[in-house]
Amino acid sequence: MILNIENLHKIYDNGTHALQGIDLSVNEGEFLVIIGLSGSGKSTLLRCINHLVEPTSGKIEFLGKDITHVRGQELREVKKQIGMVFQQFNLIKRRSVLTNVLTGKLGYLPTWNTLIEKFSPEIIAEAMQNLETVGITEKAHIRADNLSGGQQQRVAIARSLMQKPKLLLADEPVASLDPATSNSVMQYFEKVNKEFGTTVICNLHFLSLVRRYATRVVALKAGSIIYEGLPSDIDDNWFRTIYGEEAEEVEIR
Amino acid sequence: MSSHELPHAIIGAKKEREARISLTKAILLDIFFVFYSIIVLQRAVYYKLILDLREMPFAWSEIGFIFIASVILGALWASSRTSLSAKLFGVARESKVTDLTTELFGWFLFNITFISGWIITKISIVDIFSPDGIDGAQRIFGSLFTPEFNIFDDALFAIIETIYIALIATLISIPPTLVLSFLTARNLMKDSKTAFASYYVLRVFLNFVRSIEPLIWAIIFSVWVGIGPYAGMIALLVHTIASNAKLYSEAIEGIEEGPIEAIAATGANKLQIIWYAVVPQIVLPFLSFTIYRWDINVRMATIIGLVGGGGIGTMLMQYQGLALWKEVGLIVIMIAVVVWIMDYISAKIRESIK
Ligand SMILES: Nc1ncnc2c1ncn2[C@@H]1O[C@H](COP(=O)(O)OP(=O)(O)OP(=O)(O)O)[C@@H](O)[C@H]1O
Ligand SMILES: [Mg+2]
Fold it and tell me: In B, which residues are within 8 Å of A110 by CB distance?
C-alpha cells in the first residue's frame, strides 16, 4: 500500500466542508481515477495528499509514514516523492522547456547551485531523457508558452518525472484539451504508470477516458466517497447517482 | 468527542466568526457615517450656509456629545441590518427598507460632501475675473513667452543636475525596494504567523513613509545633510523605495499562483520557488515601474529644488524671488521640454519591453 487515507476532513477558512470523512487506500502500481461533479472535492483531495492545502483532520499515510502534519524539510522530502500535474499545466511561461523540466529536480539539488542555474550535465541529460519519454526533445530550447496545450502538458509530465515520483497526482490533466489531444496526453500517463510502475491518481471528467485508463475508480459526491470499484462496473444506475438524474453521458474518443 | 462532531463544530465557529466580524465592521462604519453627517450638517450647512458665521464655534464637549450620539445611532442602525454599511459588508436584511435607506443615505452623503467641499475651497467667480488679477496674469504670461536666453548655460547645467539626481535616487532604490517588496507581498508572507506579523509591520511602516511627500523629506534631509542636491537625492530615494515597494509587491501579489504551486509541489524550497516561479513573472513589470519612476523623479526633483534640493528647481526659485519673469520663463520652458522628452522616452522603453 502506497497511500492510506483515514477519515480525512477539509474545512476551508470560509467554512466550506470540502472533504467529509474520506477513507481511501491506494496500492502500488494502481491507476486510480477520481470522478465526481464540479465542487465534489476532487481537487481538494489531491491537494491534501501533497499539502498544497492543509488537511483539517484525519490521517494520511504515505509509504507507511504518517504525513498528515509534516512540515518544513520533512514535508519537502515528501513532496519530492509525489509528482503533480495540473489542469492549467502551470509551466513557467517565459522560460525554456528544458528549464521547466529541470525545475522538477530542485528539491534534490543544493539551493545555491539552482539559484545560479548551474545544472550538471547528468541532470540535463536526465531532463532530455524525460522529454524524450513524452516525445518532445526537439522543443527543449523553445519558450514554454510557445507550445500548444497538449505539448505543455507533456512538458509538465516530464517535469514531474524529474522527481522520480513514487506517486503521480493529476488534477484534471486533460480538461483544457481537445478530445484527440486528451487521449494522446492520457497515453503518456499510462506509459509512466506501466513502464516506470508509478502509481497514478487522476481526476477526470469523461467516463470514456475513465473506462480506458483506470484500473480502479472512486466517485466523490459532496465530499464523500459514494462509489468505489472497477470502471466497467459503472452502469447507468451508478452514473445517475454520481452525476444526478438529469445527466447524460457525453462520449469522447 | 466523536469524529463527526469535530468538523461541524469547526464549520459553525468559522461561519459565526466571519459574520460577527462583518457586523462589527458595519457598526464602526455606520458610527463614522452618522458622526460625519452630523458634523458636516452642523458646521458646513448650519454655521456657514445658514448663519454665515466667520468664526467657527468649537467646543470639545459638543464634539464629544455628537460622538456619543453617533455611537448610539450608528450601532442601532447597523444592528437593525438596514444600513448602508450593513449592505457594504454583506450583513444587511433583504428588504425594501434597506434598499431605500441605503440609496437615500448614499445620495445624502455625496451631496453634503460636495457642498462642504465647495465651501472649504472658497470657490469664487468674482476673484477669477477681477481686473487686477487678470492684469497680473497677463504680465507673467507675457514674460514667460518672451524668455531671456542669457542664462541658458546655467539652466542647462542645472537641469542636467536634476536629471542625475533623479537617476541616482532611482538606481540606488532598486536593491532595497526588491527586498522590501518580497517581504511585503501577502502571497509570499502568509505561511507563518511571524512572517505575517513582519509583513504587517513593514506595510504599515512603508505606508507611513510614503504618505510623507518628497517635499517634506527634502526639508528634513536639508536640515540633516545640508541644503543641496544630496538632500534632494535622499528625499527622492526614501520616497521611491516606499512607493515602488508597494507597486512591486502588488505586482508580486498579482502573479499567477499556478507555477508557484507547481514548483512548490516538486519539493523546492522558498528561495527556489521565488527564483523560478515568481521572478520570471515580475522582471518586466519591475523594470517598467523603475523606468517610469525615474521619469516621475525628474519632475519631483524639480519641485524639491524649490525648497533647496538643488538642480533646476533651486534656480527657478532664485529667479522667481527676484521677480525676473523672463528668466523664469526660460527655466519653465526648459523644464517642460525635458519632462516631455523623459515622458516620451520612458513610454517608448516601457512599450518595447512589454
Ligand atoms: N481555496 C478555497 N477556499 C474555499 N473554498 C474552496 C477552496 N477551494 C475549493 N473550495 C470549495 O471546496 C469545494 C470542493 O472544491 P474542489 O475544487 O475540491 O472541487 P472539484 O471536485 O475539484 O471541482 P471541479 O471539478 O470544479 O474542479 C467546493 O465547494 C469549492 O467551492
Ligand atoms: Mg478541481
Answer: none
Residue A197 pLDDT > 50, yes or no? yes
Interface contact flag, B263 A103, Cβ < 8 Å: yes
Secondary structure class of B145 (helix, strand, coil) = coil
| pTM of the predicted structure, to 2 decimals | 0.73
- Classify residue B89 by its DSSP letter: T
User: Between residues B227 and A119, which one has the greater pLDDT?
Assistant: A119
Closest ligand to C-alpha of residue A48 is 1
CB B113 within 8 A of CB B43: no
B258 contacts on A by Cβ (under 8 Å): 86, 88-90
| Whole-number pLDDT of residue B1 | 37
Partnered with residue A33 across adjacent β-strands are: A202, A217
Per the rule left: phi > 0, alpha: psi between -120 and 50, beta: everything else, B280 is: alpha
Q: How confident is the model at residue B14 (pLDDT cuts 50, 70, 90)?
A: confident
DSSP assigned state of A251: P
CB contact (8 A) between residue B268 and residue A78: no
How is chain A split among helix, strand and coil, in percent rounded to 5?
40, 25, 35
Q: Do A90 and B259 touch (CB under 8 A)?
A: yes
Q: Which of B15, B266, B280 sits opposite A163 (nearest CB)?
A: B266
Q: Answer for the pair A50, A80: CB distance below 8 angstroms, yes or no.
A: no
Residue B265 touches partner A, C-beta closer than 8 Å = yes
Question: B196 with B190: CB under 8 angstroms?
Answer: yes
CB A34 within 8 A of CB A45: yes
| Residue B31 DSSP label | H
| Residues β-bridged to residue A5 | A24, A60
Cell of A54: 492543509
Q: What is the per-residue DSSP string for A97-128?
A: HHHHHHGGGGGGS-HHHHHTT---HHHHHHHH
Helix (H, G, I), strand (E, B) or coil at B4: coil
Give yes or no for a contact between A81 and A163, defined as CB atoms under 8 angstroms apart: yes
> Radius of gyration (Cα) for chain A, nearest Å?
18
Q: Which helix (H) or strand (E) holds A43?
A: helix A42-49
Beta bridge mates, A94: none
What digits encode the pLDDT tens for the residues B224-238? 988 888 999 999 999
